[in-house]
Amino acid sequence: MANFFPRWSNLVPFQIAGSVACIALGVAAGFAYYATPKAQRVGYQPDQPIPFDHALHVTQNGIDCRYCHSFVEESGHANVPTADTCWKCHQHVQTENPKLEPLRAAVDESYAGYTGKPIEWVRIHKAPDYVYFDHSAHLNRGISCVSCHGQVDEMRKVWHDKSLSMDFCLECHRAPEKHLRPLEEVYNLKFDAAEYLAAHPELGIKVEAGEDAQLALGKALKEKWSIQPKESCFTCHR
Amino acid sequence: MSDRKMNKAEETGTKVWRSLGQLEDTPQFREYLEREFPEGSAQIETEEDREVTRRSFMKLMGASTALAGFGLASCRRPESLIVPFAEAPEWVIPGKPLYYASSMPSAKGAASLVVTTHEGRPTKIEPNRLFSKQGGTGTFAQASVLNMYDPARSRDFVKAGKTVTRGEFEEFAKELSADLNKTAFVFGEDNSATRDRLVGEIAAKHSGSKFYKYEALAGEGQKLANEKVFGKGSAVIADYSKAERILSLDADFLEMDQQGPVSGFYNNRAVEGPQYDQKPDKNRINRLYIAEGIFSLTGGMADHRLRIAPSQIVRIAAAVAVELGVSTQVPAGALGEFEQKWVKECAADLKAHAGHSVVVAGSRHSEAVQQLVIAINQKLGSYGKTLKPVVTNSGAYGKLTDLLADIDSGAVENVILVGPANPVYDAAGFAAAAKKLKNLVHLGERLDATANAASWHVPAAHYLESWGDSYAADGRYTVVQPMILPLYGGVSELDLLVALLTGSKLFNSITEGAKLSPAYKEVRKTFEGIGGAGDAAWTKLLRDGFSDKGAYAAAQVGAADLSSVVGAAVAAPTVEALEISFLADPSVLDGRYINNAWLQEAPDPLTKITWDNCAMISPQTAKDLGLYEKLVQLEPKGKLYGMVDVSKPNAPVGPDGEGRDRAQPVIKVVVNGAELEIPVMVAFGQADNLISIALGYGQGYDEHNELGLSTEGAANVSQVGVNTGFNAYLLRTAETPYIATGAKIEDLDKRYSTAVTQEHHSMYGRAIAREISTNDVEHKGSFEKQLEGVKKQGVDSHAPPNISLYKQKGSSTWHDKYQADEHLFDKRQQWAMTIDLNSCTGCNACLVACQAENNIPVVGKTQVAIGRAMHWIRMDRYFAAVQKTDINGQLITEDDGHGHQVPVYDESNPEMIPQPVACQQCESAPCETVCPVNATVHSEDGLNTMAYNRCIGTRYCANNCPYKARRFNFFDYNKRNPLVHKNLYKGPLGEKQVGEAPHLQRNPNVSVRMRGVMEKCTYCVQRLQEAKIKAKSVLKNKSVAAGVPSAEVSVSDAEMRPPVNSVRVACQDACEAGAITFGNIQNGDKETVVRARDSKRNYALLNYIGTMPRTTYLARVKNPNAKMPDAKAIGKATISMH
Q1: pLDDT exceeds 70 at position B815
Q2: What pLDDT shows up at residue A20?
Q3: Would residue A186 count as lying in a domain?
Q4: Hey, of B1025, B1040, B1057, which one would you mutate to test binding to chain A, going by the most A CBs within 10 A of its CB?
Q5: Does B799 touch chain A (CB under 8 A)?
Q6: Which helix (H) or strand (E) holds B992?
Q7: Co-location of A74 and A18 in the same domain
Q8: How far apart are CA B151 and CA B674, in angstroms?
Q9: How many C-beta atoms surround the C-beta of residue B47 within 10 A?
Q10: Taking residues B561-569, what's their average pLDDT?
């Protein structure tokens, strides 16, 4: 019987197997990099109907987070301010600024383009439907905005700063001391644990040489406040 | 048959599809949403306006997030929007529920409620604990919220079957309002002070206007008797809190025929006191006697139950009256020897407790029975003690018979129907009379037979959408407060009355929603006359939901008039002349809840049938009529319900004929010259020669109905109510409204598929439900001895203790000597529940409450039939035969042929024990160990939790659950409408129901589960988490209170606990009997649940398998009268169970 297959074809199965393996690895690596929240969400910075500048309002004007996100200590949701909240100041300040037209359309009845329709902000941070994150539970126990949202006080246009993946949540639930701070400092996004400890010697928290001040403070607070973050499913999923 | 095989059968059987575009008008609903946005964000001028606008649902919708389609960055999630209010309404905190007090008016007295609203949507009904400590709401109140969101609700004005504009009706109303003489108003049987006032004003203005009250099952005999003895418009309110001995004459006074608040009864039933804080004392328990035809839930609670046809109740009443010294003329001698003895001892017991005893008669009974009962109660001195006669305003209204006469005589030309009744369907003679009318105006929530027959139909607002007032069961004044503007622009009863009284334009909630409605002003005006003027009293009323002022006044007690008793005796029914008893249905009541899917799917407490009614007969009658063999075998059709109507006599069938193959024989019932084809079913404990049929079903059929019935009435029901049950109103006449005699039946040799969730004849052998007696029991000793023995009933009496070979590190509840590991054991809270079988009647309120709270889908009849009902609580109901006794009360035994004396059991009058079973939250849970993906795991606080997003649907857990507490989403019941014929089997082509109105009822704090996911009770984990999160603010509060920086404050575990008894779960809240306790066992005996667990009656289900459930049960205690002939047989129904 004739030799149907040339000699080089002996290697073909191995070559195919090798290529498939490479492609599979590539797909897996690509998926791992591009399809995770870290790649999908971090950096998301959509245009908003009003180019609201957090850096200007928080850092320059010194407005507290809770002036606008008023129910964040009460409710699971951190509410986006209603138009009349903005209007409290902006009926006096920057009244003619064209950037504020959507706001005037929502609340200013004397404005020609008044519609009364609420402003439609573009959502940046979103937990999946099956996750029940509660802002008040975290803020009332000494976790700051900055831990999940980044330095919003320095953002001229807000972007998604942390991955907010389940891994991200668990990291903190396993070691809350990395983030805990006194309740008074929760909304101070420029908080520095070392400075705080230096200013409050009466707390008696000693920082060992080479130890991180935040860790020392966090551990002390965790102990004192009986912080026991849970890792079981029902903490977030119900 | 395997699932795969069955699915194939379904697919090939697909033939006809039903279009529901008209009924399910989704685009129209969305349009309503769209249009209301701008209005919702309008300016708010005054404080009063704020009151109204804060309830504006459409405005609050602005707070929700809208999906805005896919952007260019398609790798990312679709862009979504956050739309905050333009102007914030007061009190609304996004993400936090708001609670408002209101009440649900009903003929039996309004239920005072607290309604949970999420972002303006009412989602859940809770009892008003300020009104009554024990609370509870009952099944109908729980389910009423779904009625509001019913997508089939009427939303258009209709003139003679054609949709017209609102303006056309307004024109008509204006014209009519000029002259209301010869116009009749027909209201519901509930009482409303504002309605009464407006009616008075209309009557003053138009002397020829007439007013009536009508509901199909209002109990005319009782009203008539009360009117004669206590004056016009009077009612009698029973107070069971002072009643130590109760005799019920065919009155289901705990459930369907409530005659006063029931909490007192349950408090007196508690062996250790309602708070479980006293020593078990058999003397503090009340004793309940009942004589009835069919097992009611009250009958299930009774200590002594006499099985007797309803027509014979008058004899029992007369016999009791004679025993108590009332002179009457009914031949009581017609009673049998057993009945005579029963009556004698019962009457003696009532007499011995005179002043602390009460006799109640079913409201459905004749005036003769009612007069006898009044005479008995007068002899017992019940009035002023256990019975409170009061004067209501209903004396100003006529009856239906008056209306029919007035129509006949021409005194009435226009009829305006504003009540919940559906007289074209449920009142004999009304449809014919209506033809003589010039105008029949119908105000109603649904397009029922009356709406479709009326010359005008006006869409009504639901009670959660309207202002009003009412009176509670105990006579207190309550307010009806809207939670939301009418979803479909419905008109409230009071608004319509005001428009007709004043000739003003009808209030339009769509265009004028920001303004105060006339109804609000009228209710406020009424209340000014009751609680005084000023904002303080009014806001207190709105906050509390009721007022201490304005309750019914007491009525004068007259003498009973026993003249009607003469000739009231009716011959007992025989096989040749059967008796029919018409009943209110626990699911659809008188038919008004036919479109409520939660109620339709809730299994009937007695028969466990869903989505249908049946004619019920006793086993003996079935034998006498030659139906028994058929009923026992329940010959299968061989195919799934509704598929192909072919009989396969030899197809396999389970021992009980359960599941998809169940098909009831169909009979024809003939009485009063009318006939009805209806499937027949065996009901245990029913009197012989009696047919019981629930009313309210059979309002419309479409082409998919199994028996090929006329589709004439298809437009009278929605896709929920279509093809459900059979209309027994056809057999009912004005002369025989509740009891008809001389009926015959005919076996039609047909079958009808039914979906029955449980048809167990006995307890399957295991001592799951347990019962003891206050009397001494043979071999078991005294009450105290029996108490000790509760934990040792059944297998637990001899099973060796469970010793785990695997020493699980962690919970000290597993192994005392191991120190608890914080990782597994939370010192702050450990949750537990107890269910007290001594007060549980099996009414389904918990089941429906759970459905409302936890977003549990409805699956439809076909799916229920194949065992796919999704209720997390399974309401089990056991019948247990009792041992036969002779007339002297001696137990009857017989020789078993081996020289042993064995008991003889009487299966004709068994005891009924209901038992709700949900996930038992086992500490050592068998389900957890078999899940391959850890989707069901234990929490630190003792819950067996579900991570739904992790579940891959292997169903191993359900397989391994000894309590069968898990439910599996075989289809996407939430997304695909299971009520559309065969919709589930169409896959992606099926009709979707996402975004429709019922989805607005969903609890936002609970995941909506999808296909292929296992689900079960998790102790309302969302409520537990909320309580725990609330407790977290203790740190801030402490720091602020002490005025020191938070870093100097320390917080202990005990401080982080939610307060004692503060966490309540949905089933517990709904229970009128207070049978369910729930709480944190770490609080020690300050917590009610801990005291209940410490009770000697406490036991765990299947304790011997070592699952260590956190939910435990408390044994039922029967309190028989030792002198009664059946005393020795009572209270040991479960004694021989294993």
Answers
A1: no
A2: 97
A3: yes
A4: B1025
A5: no
A6: none
A7: no
A8: 35
A9: 9
A10: 79
Domain that holds residue A198: 70-78+125-235
Q: Are residues A35 and A131 in the same domain?
A: no
Number of separate domains in chain A: 2
Rounded to an integer, the average pLDDT of B289-294 is: 93
Helix (H, G, I), strand (E, B) or coil at B480: strand
pLDDT at B813: 52
Query: CA-to-CA distance for B880 and B618, rounded, in angstroms?
Result: 15
**AA letter at B845:** A
- Which residues have a Cβ under 8 Å from the Cβ of B819 and sit 6 or more positions away? B812
B830 burial (CB, 10 Å; 0-12 / 13-18 / 19+) is buried
Based on the fold, state whether residues A74 and A31 are members of the same structural domain.
Answer: no
B positions 1019-1038 inside 8 Å of A (CB): 1021-1022, 1025, 1029, 1032-1033, 1035-1036
What domains are defined for chain B?
A: 161-216+396-466+486-515 (3.40.50.740), 220-392 (3.40.228.10), 578-756 (2.40.40.20), 771-974+1009-1118 (3.30.70.20)
Averaged confidence pLDDT in chain A: 90
Q: Do A200 and B1045 touch (CB under 8 A)?
A: yes
**Does any domain span residue A57?**
no
Residue B1045 CB partners (closer than 8 Å, separation 6+): A182, A184, A200, B1039
- How far the first Cα of chain B sits from its last, in Å, is 31
Nearest-angstrom CA–CA distance, B668 and B744 = 8
User: Who contacts B171 (Cβ-Cβ below 8 Å, separation ≥6)?
Assistant: none
Write down the residue that tokens 């249908």 correspond to. Answer: B612
Rounded average pLDDT over B1016-1033: 93
| Residue entry with tokens 């400890």 | A197
**Roughly what angle, to the nearest 10 degrees, separates helices B193-205 and B518-531?**
110
* Higher per-residue pLDDT: B144 or B989: B144
Residue B916 has pLDDT above 90, yes or no: yes
Number of Cβ pairs < 8 A linking chain A and chain B: 185
- Continuous segment of H or E residues that includes residue B820: none
Residues A74 and A178 in one domain: yes
Closest CA to B78 of B70, B90, B86: B70
Burial B536-573 (b: 16+ CB within 10 A, else e): ebbeebbebbbbeebbbeebebeebebebbeebbbebb
Name which of B96, B946, B947 is nearest A74 (Cβ-Cβ).
B96
Whether residues A35 and A74 fall in one domain: no
Question: Could you write out the three-class secondary structure of A38-92?
Answer: HHHCCCCCCCCCCCCCHHHHHHHCCCCHHHHCCCCCCCCCCCCCCHHHHHHHHCC
- pLDDT tier at B18 (50, 70, 90 boundaries)? very low
The residue among B483, B482, B929, B874 whose CA lies nearest residue B495 is B482
The mean pLDDT value for B407-419 works out to 91
Q: Average pLDDT for residues A130-135, to the nearest whole number?
A: 92
Residue A110 lies in a domain: no
Residue A102 lies in a domain: no
In chain B, residues 36-75 whose CB comes closer than 8 Å to chain A: 37-38, 41-43, 62, 65-66, 68, 75
Return d(Cα B983, Cα B147) in angstroms, integer.
23
- If asked whether residues A197 and A141 sit together in one domain, one would say yes
Please report the pLDDT score of residue B566 as a whole number: 75
DSSP B179: -
Note whether A16 and A74 are same-domain residues: no
A233: chain B residues, CB-CB within 8 Å: 934-935, 937, 939, 945-947, 950
Q: How far is B955 from chain A (nearest CA, A)?
A: 19
The predicted complex's ipTM stands at 0.89
Distances (CA, A) of B810 to B804, B939, B1104: 14, 12, 22
- Indicate whether A74 and A34 sit together in one domain: no
Selected residue with higher pLDDT from B826 and B485: B485
Query: Can you say whether residue A210 is alpha, beta or left, with left for phi > 0 and alpha for psi between -120 and 50 degrees?
Result: left
